[in-house]
């Protein structure tokens, strides 16, 4: 077998071409660097010699003026000017410091003539004027009315006819006040929604806006809301017993602040750097008239995270009963822990748990009624807070299961029982009527249309806009209060594989220790409770 041929040496022409290409590349790079350096030197030199350049430009203008005057002057005026110049020169020669004064006057004139006489650009429209005019033009088709005697909105008119006040932060509109025709149907939600959508489209849909409709004065006030804080990690909050922090809102929506930490460390203490945020506090037990809560949102909107947040806070001084109608196992981290009565994921288990809940409600009501009749304090086991988590109960196939909630819903405030349910927007029509009528605390999470949001909250929020709603962001309405913005805390499932280690450790540190999980406690049946307090059970 013949030996392999040795590697061939590159041809001389190829080596010359490569060397030439490399040399040209280095030369081009060096030339570009030299040009950049020369530009920097030129700029520094211009800044350094700017006064001299200014005086030089003035001297040239003085010489040009003198030459022009000499050419245009008559012989007699030239002779007079020469005689005057000689006389002034002689006077300055004999005057103390005369030559210096002449040189100073000459330099002062050069400085005056060397100034930049470029005329300033003509003044343009005020900042934001084009944006305001665009908003006005977009509102004309919706607010123009031929019956309006003031004709505030008409095609081709200036926005100042209708806009009374406006504020800008840079080029971003922060506040706008306008008047509209008294013939506009401002009590029609659809008409209002059209106006709001136009303002959002022209002012920017990335932010949320608060709309204040003054129907008596025919005035609309639009205020851009600042962004809410990002998701706050789960942590122990400074609250009183029977107070649950649902999340955080705007400083103008509450008069309360609590210390929080935004650190990702599992052992971080609250308020390490003085951070305080306004919370949305939900009170349970006898201190409120809204002991039950309903959270509405689509997939991945943060409903289950909100339930875990409520469960972690309830377990500090109460018990939790979780019914996962979806069977997803999102509450497996609660199973077997102290204070967790049961975590159910099956239909039969849900029926059993809700049956026990109805009997427990009757037992507590009877015990409390008996204690009041005898003038004693209610027993501890009848006053211990109990939170029932129902994750999408509309998925329960047995409709009779929902009737088991009637008694706990109606007597929840008296018996210290709170029911927290979740639902998707498409499930609102399938929820039990009692659950809809008794849940006076509402939360709407995720991107929802205006009609669904109003149905979920029981009232229109008056806030619109904002695209790309993150998980846990939405609105809340506690009792009969106003609708406010909400950012729920970040309480992930510690058993999920993709949960970061720091978040897993933080949530596990908030949960009580693992205890032996047994059957639901038995405190007597509903019949025995009715026999104890027949008058109370008969009324319920």
UniProtKB/TrEMBL annotation:
Entry-linked InterPro entries: AAA+_ATPase, FtsK_dom, P-loop_NTPase
Transmembrane segments: 80-113
UniProt name for this protein: Membrane protein
Membrane recorded as keyword: yes
Residues binding ATP, per UniProt: 297-304
Keywords, alphabetical: ATP-binding, Membrane, Nucleotide-binding, Transmembrane, Transmembrane helix
Domain FtsK residue range list: 277-454
Organism domain of life: Bacteria
Signal peptide: none
